[in-house]
Amino acid sequence: MALPTLPSYCCTRRLLDQQMARQRQREQEARLRQQWDQNSRYFRMSDLCSSKQAEWSSKTSYQRSMHAYQREKMKEEKRKRLEARRERLRQLLLEEQDLLARELEELRLSMNSRERRIREQHGNLKSAREEQRKLIAEQLLYEHWKKNDPKLREIESDLHKKHVINSWETQKEEKKQGRIRPGDRGWSMVGGTCVLKGVFVAGSLFCYNLPHKRSTLAYSSTSGDQRH
């Protein structure tokens, strides 16, 4: 193996030294640029802080800050007033709904009560009409029975005759006592005799109130005897 010669070793050593020198130079330049950048950023931030501090400490900045604070305060107060108004409106709406519900319930109860009263009145009227129809039917049935029952007609005729005779006797007694005058109690003067109007004619008493026949009661002017 051959050993390197001295000139080649010197060349190689020189190249290495040059490369290392260039490397150190590049690193130094990088450090300088980094330091420069850091210093530049520092000064820029310092200038910015100074300008902002000067701006914020100025009267204009104070006024702007106060105006902004007042605007925010007014917005907050407006928001609170709006929220309070919404709450009041919400409460009023709830109260109105409750009142409306109560009124509807009262109206429903009133309508139900009115309907019950109308039904009761209708039932009462219906019962009254039915009772009236029943009474009319019973009356008609009684009248029909009374008209068509010969025994009842005979009994009624006898009772009527007795009533007329008793009335006649009573009137005669009153006439004798001078308490009957012509024109009193349905009486009239016929031939010098005080008689019932339209009943006693020429000494005979006619009764037209009997249901199916006319009965004649004749009286003597002296004795008062009855003739049928």
Please provide a written account of the structure:
- With 228 residues, the protein is α+β, with helices and mostly antiparallel strands.
- The protein folds into 3 domains: 8-57; 69-148; 151-227, no CATH class.
- It is 74% helix and 9% strand.
- It contains 3 helices and 6 strands, in the order H-H-H-E-E-E-E-E-E.
- The protein has helices spanning 6-56, 59-148, 150-176; strands spanning 187-190, 193-196, 200-201, 204-207, 215-219, 226-227.
- Strands 3-4-5-6 form a 4-stranded antiparallel β-sheet, covered by helices on one side.
- The radius of gyration is 70 Å and the shape is rod-shaped.
| Beginning-to-end CA distance, first to last residue | 201 Å
**Into how many domains do the coordinates divide?**
3
Structural class: alpha+beta
The coarse silhouette is: rod-shaped
Task: Give start-end ranges of low-pLDDT stretches.
Answer: 182-228
Q: Output the strand order for the largest sheet.
A: 3-4-5-6
The main β sheet shows up as: 4 strands, antiparallel
Helix share, percent: over 70%
As a whole number of angstroms, the C-alpha radius of gyration is 70 Å
Mean pLDDT: 75
The H-and-E topology, N to C, reads as HHHEEEEEE
Number of helices: 3
Can you lay out the helices and strands and say which pair or pack?
Layout: H1 6-56, H2 59-148, H3 150-176, E1 187-190, E2 193-196, E3 200-201, E4 204-207, E5 215-219, E6 226-227
Antiparallel strand pairs: 1-2, 3-4, 4-5, 5-6
